[in-house]
Amino acid sequence: MGTVRSVTLIDWDVAVNTGTRLVRPGPQVDLPEARQAVEQLRELSVTAQHHVREFTGLVPLEPGGAAVVVDRPGWIRSNVAGFRVVLEPIIEQLAERRGGPAAAGSVGSVTTMVGSKVTGVQLGAILSYLAGRVLGQYELFLPPDPDGKAPTGRLTLVAPNIVHTERELAVDPRDFRLWVCLHEETHRVQFTASPWLRDYVQEQMREYLLSTDIDAAQFLDRLRAAGEAVADVVRGNEGNVLGAFQSPAQSEILDRITAVMTLAEGHGDFVMDAVGPEVVPSVEEIRARFQQRREGGNRIDKIIRQLIGLDLKMKQYAEGAAFVREVVGEVGMAEFNRVWESRETLPTLKEIRDPGLWINRVVRTQELAAAPVPAAATAGADTGTAPGGTGADTATGADADTPGGSSPSDAAASDTPEAAEVDAPGSDAPGSEASAAEASDTPSARDDDPGPVPGDVSPPPEK
Prior knowledge:
Blueprint: H1 12-22, H2 31-56, E1 68-70, H3 72-97, H4 104-114, H5 116-131, E2 136-139, E3 154-158, H6 159-169, H7 173-192, H8 196-210, H9 216-234, H10 241-244, H11 248-279, H12 283-295, H13 299-307, H14 310-331, H15 333-336, H16 349-353, H17 355-370, H18 375-383, H19 391-394, H20 417-420, H21 432-441
Parallel strand pairs: 1-3
Antiparallel strand pairs: 2-3
Helix pairs in contact: 1-3, 1-5, 2-7, 3-5, 3-8, 6-7, 7-11, 8-11, 11-14, 14-17
């Protein structure tokens, strides 16, 4: 009797093949220009490190090198690899919790009805859409090195999308590229200066996915709800498919995930615009045109963005940046940086929408605890009389929900040679496969992409 294979929810190879087949080619760029763009993006990613660290006061605990530059197919392969790192251990846990492969009727209420290959096609199709829009991301989850050590993360930039966007906006290429690098470098600093944050994000994602326990009947109910969500969006109403598949328990976890994503993205936008005037001369023009582009798009594009939750991401940029601006304006950058100290100091979703709550809970409470006790109060305590007031009652700790959140699992990327080196197509030299991919992704006149969206913890891309 043969060995029983474990349940597979997603065919990863199908996801990669579907995504790379459906993704549109990049803008038409000649080879010298492509090479210059790749090299400049690497240089500017290093330049951005100094500006971000000096402005934020955050100190990374590991060295940061130049960004990895990829093309659209390379971004898809990287993100599928990242999804595997995060999801495969969880899929195995789900199978074991439900009795192993023999319990495929339980794990597979989704698997048997949809099928791993169909799921792979769905994932690939979504990634092909995003691959034409994402400008860059900080990849949190990477496959292990050959020696088995898991890398801590990597900064990735999608060269064709950056070139496409700067052309469409008619802005200065160097200014725009540095502006994008400032945002993405901010994400790298957030996670490398706060090493606990990566584990927290992964923990929240694992908890979210493991809280799924639906049978076939429940799945059909949620499938109907998803259908209704699609109809609502097409009619111009609010809604998205992701929300239709969430249980109440998942909604609570998602609030924590959303909170940390909103903080990370808003902080990235705040830093890129605050540092911009000093190092990006045309930053105001870039921001105005980019924001207009984020809010634009044709009707079909808007429907797709809303269905897969990208409109929620646009809202996160605005809410997160507003939170950072108000807190920094009220208590300064050093006190704001307490958000990165621990999971307890992360803001809740409620606090992001009302920054005063976070300031009172985290900053003011510490100030009260550190304040010297007045002599009169000490005398009162010695004689047994009650002091005139209790500092504990003045702290607003009631709203301190469990903080949390997860930045988009800025999925892992393999250092694909595609855009890392731009050699002449057809070369037999090392990296020639990458060179051909880069060349084929840049020189093409068939690009009619509407452009970037902003994740993954992922530029001002309008993911």
